[in-house]
Amino acid sequence: MAFGFIKKVFSFGKKEAVEQPAEDEVLPPLNFDALEALKPTEETPVALETPVAVETPAVPVEEPKPEPAPERPSAPPVVPEPKPAEQPVPVEPAPQPAPEEEPKPEPAPEVPVVEPEKPAEQPAPAPSPVEPAPAPAEVPLPPAEPSTPELPEEVPVQPAPVPAEPPLEVPVRDEVAPQPEVAAEAEPAPAIPLPLEGRVAAQRPGGVAESSDATQFEATQAPSTAETTPSGPSDHLPPEGGEDAQPSPVAQKPAAGKVTVQKKVEQKAEIVEAAAPAPRQSWFQRLRQGLSRSSKELSGNIAGIFTKRKLDEDTLQDLEDVLIRADLGVETALRVTDALAASRYGKDVSDHEVRSIMAVEVEKVLKPVALPLELDLSHKPHVILVVGVNGTGKTTTIGKLAAKLTEGGLSVMLAAGDTFRAAAIEQLKIWGERTKSPVIASKLGADAAGLAYDAFEKAKEAGSDVLIIDTAGRLQNKAELMAELEKIVRVLGKLDPEAPHTVLQTVDATTGQNALNQVEIFRNIAGVNGLVMTKLDGTARGGILVAIAAKHKLPVYFIGVGEQVDDLEPFSASDFAKAIAGVA
Ligand SMILES: Nc1nc2c(ncn2[C@@H]2O[C@H](COP(=O)(O)OP(=O)(O)OP(=O)(O)O)[C@@H](O)[C@H]2O)c(=O)[nH]1
What does the UniProt entry say about where the protein is found (predicted)? Predict the structure, then answer.
């Protein structure tokens, strides 16, 4: 029994704590010295049991077994006492904390919001360097040093140890770690962040400033400032600081006028060339990989039709069905079958020939909508309103787009207009930190239109090039959503009749046919004039993009094939058509 307990404790990395009590117990039996020299183990158990009532350590040792089995209650009443009195209780809670902590790590990916908040608080104790002690208060530290008295606290921490080994060193920072990683990705464009950091640095009351420190500070500080929406934002974008902080050539701002946003801001092409090339897979490779499910299913079905069969009415009908089932839409399906029939009717046709013709026809459908996003910088700022159903990738797309713009030397301000979800607000703040873009946010449930108006004013004051406004997308309450979006558009128009200058809708490719309706709805509600197709990676329904293009004929500016900051690329009709058709 006792051994079992000790082992458990060891596993938590608290040998010291346990061993001590064990030794203490052994000490009393020292009276038997000579005799017991050989049987230390056997004695201990005896000693443990005897002193049970008196010596607390002995009790806890036995309880560990009872832990899993509350069966112990049957054991001598003595046992139950020690539990409540001592740590045995905490030992059991240990498993409890495990579930508690797990939820944290899990939400981490989805709701990094929690993480940023923690760091946000830490910065306060930022003087941490001076007070490493307060940090222990966080719990993680105690487990390492403290022994018995802290066991209860340690217990909850122990569950973490498993994943916690890293946290042991810098638990909180670990959570923030992901941010530095992102920052690292953004680093490729070293010159850009510099000026931006300069801005943020200027915002800091204390003027702390090294790049690395700055990053950490911003990660925590930014959110807080964003919360102080009313005054904060303006402070965030001191045009002076921004320009001063742009010592690097890359930081040069594009002249007023129209710029094209593709892989980078077009007007910055010369400077962008200096940026280090990404070592990752080529865009087309990633696109092919992302659409592999769509193309494989399609290719498999096509191959099934044309194996040892001539092209006739039946095969054409079968092909049409396959294309429609692949979400390409009736119009495109007919285009493909017509084109195929025109040149190959009555002949043997290989599936590869069919897919090649399909790629050509799909490209024809997509070509008209594969347009680059153009920003009119004569507007200060050019306002981009991002709409779409919840979860379609609005916030993520805003972050990716902000990264492109800031890397291109443009100053960007973000507005957390989805005031219905705290997570959405926090998520945008994180993107703001990553892209060094000020975020205007307000309390949960605040009037989104009021926030948009406020953000527009602040962006004007700050001289921002672009203002990107996030919005809620609660289609489940269509009337309310419609009223809110209409109000946002109306309010923005008071400051600039032409605003919002771009209304982007994010469309989740995994949605399938319902995406067609979503575009219809948001187009009518918010005047959508451009699309971003997200989550094309890993879906078998990528063909829906073709159906949307054929039906709505709205520009598709970008497509998303992942959650990373660089997983947003300008839409290429040719690349997409080849990728989904599975031809080189
Ligand atoms: N695989 C993949 N995931 C994506 C892509 N774009 C966004 N996501 C993920 O989709 C989820 C929802 O994205 P959000 O940006 O929060 O979507 P949203 O529309 O802002 O959602 P709400 O905040 O609820 O309105 C997140 O987990 C994103 O990481 C993409 O292109 N590919």
Answer: Cell inner membrane; Cell membrane; Cytoplasm
What residues does ligand 1 touch, defined as CB less than 6 Å away? 110, 388, 390-396, 418, 421, 424, 427, 473, 506, 534-535, 537, 560-563, 567
Q: Which atom of ligand 1 is nearest to the CA of 388?
A: 19
526 or 202, which is more confident? 526
Domain end point (choices 92, 120, 146): 92
Do 528 and 411 sit in the same domain of this protein? yes
Q: Is there a single domain that holds both residue 59 and residue 119?
A: no
pTM: 0.57
Q: Which tens digits make up the pLDDT trace of 220-267?
A: 233 333 333 333 333 332 233 333 333 333 445 566 677 777 666 655
* Nearest ligand 1 atom, CA 561: 31
Regarding whether 566 and 442 lie in a shared domain, the answer is yes
The pick from 396, 397, 471, 558 for probing ligand 1's pocket by mutation, whose C-beta has the most ligand atoms within 8 angstroms, reads 396
Host domain of residue 146: 98-176
Domain assignment present for 382 = yes
* Measured distance CA(251)–CA(245) in Å, rounded: 8
Query: Please, how many CA atoms are within 13 Å of residue 137, restricted to the half-sphere of its CB?
Result: 9
Q: If you measure from the C-alpha of residue 393 to the centroid of ligand 1, how many angstroms do you get, rounded to a whole number? A: 3
Ligand 1 atom, smallest distance to 562 CA:
32
Cα–Cα distance for residue pair 376/379, rounded to 1 Å: 6
Contact 395/479 with Cβ under 8 angstroms? no
- Residues making up the binding site: 388-395, 470-474, 534-537
Q: Which residue has the CA at smallest separation from atom 23 of ligand 1?
A: 424
* Per-residue pLDDT reduced to its tens digit, 255-272: 667 777 766 665 544 444
Q: Rounded to the nearest whole angstrom, what is the distance from the C-alpha of residue 355 to the centroid of ligand 1?
A: 31
Same domain, 375 and 360: no
Do residues 336 and 404 share a domain? no
Q: Is the peptide bond before 500 cis (omega within 30 degrees of 0)?
A: yes
Q: Does residue 579 form part of some domain?
A: no
Q: Whose CA is nearest to atom 1 of ligand 1?
A: 562
Residues in the annotated binding site for GTP: 388-395, 470-474, 534-537
* CA 229-233-239 angle, 5° bins: 170
Instruction: For residues 376 and 478, state if they share a domain.
Output: yes
* 306 Cα: distance to centroid of ligand 1 (angstroms): 38
Domain CATH number, residue 569: 3.40.50.300
Instruction: Say if 197 falls within a structural domain.
Output: no
Ligand 1, atom 21, residue with closest C-alpha: 391
The reported pLDDT for the residue numbered 570 is 93
Paired sense of beta strands 568-570 and 439-440, if any: unpaired
Q: Is the dihedral of CA 317, 320, 325, 329 positive or negative?
A: negative
- The answer to whether residue 119 is domain-embedded is yes
CA distance 111 to 499: 31
Q: What spacing in Å lies between the alpha carbon of 198 and ligand 1's midpoint? A: 30
Question: Position 55: which residue type?
Answer: E
CATH assignment of the domain containing 351? 1.20.120.140
CA 560 and chain centroid, separation: 13
Would you state the structure tokens that stand for residue 428, as one six-digit string?
């945008």
Beta strand 373-376 with 258-261 is antiparallel
End residue of a domain, out of 92, 125, 158: 92
Domains of the chain: total: 4
Question: Is 296 in the same domain as 155?
Answer: no
